[in-house]
Amino acid sequence: QVQVVESGGGLVQAGGSLRLSCEASGRTFSSYRAGWFRQAPGKEREFVASIGRSGSSTVYAAFVKARFTLSRDNARNTVYLQMNSLKPEDTAVYYCALRNDDYASQYEYWGEGTQVTVSS
Question: Judging by beta carbons within 10 Å of its beta carbon (0-12, 13-18, 19+), is residue 52 exposed, middle or buried?
Fold first, then answer.
């Protein structure tokens, strides 16, 4: 079983930055694609970004528009989401999830989420 824990959320003013971290337990972290999702109050959860096993491939949602950067450190079992130029509409609970692309089409392991609040 893999456990996922997010951290780094908080309250920031519009235009500010935050770096979210996602740390996973287990020795097979490098076997998983890592994704970030977010859910704002009253809205459905939406995809933010994902990063492949080695960190060489990333995918971003259109609304990210080069404001967010995803990276990973497999030696530390950690994925980082650097968020710059934050907007009030980025306010949401951000979730990290892992998926093994060899056999899974859905993300299997999810964290509890970390709250990001952007004030105007």
Answer: middle
Q: Is 69 within 8 Å of 59 (Cβ atoms)? A: no
Mind listing the pLDDT tens digit for each residue in 22-78?
A: 999 987 899 999 999 999 999 999 999 999 999 999 999 999 979 999 999 999 999
Which pair of tokens denotes residue 111?
Answer: 């964290």
What are the φ/ψ torsions at residue 51 (nearest 5 degrees)? -140, 140
Q: What distance in Å separates the CA atoms of residue 71 and residue 116, rounded to the nearest whole number?
A: 19
Q: How far is CA 78 from CA 20, 25, 88, 106, in A?
A: 10, 9, 27, 20
Handedness of CA 13, 14, 17, 19 (dihedral sign): positive
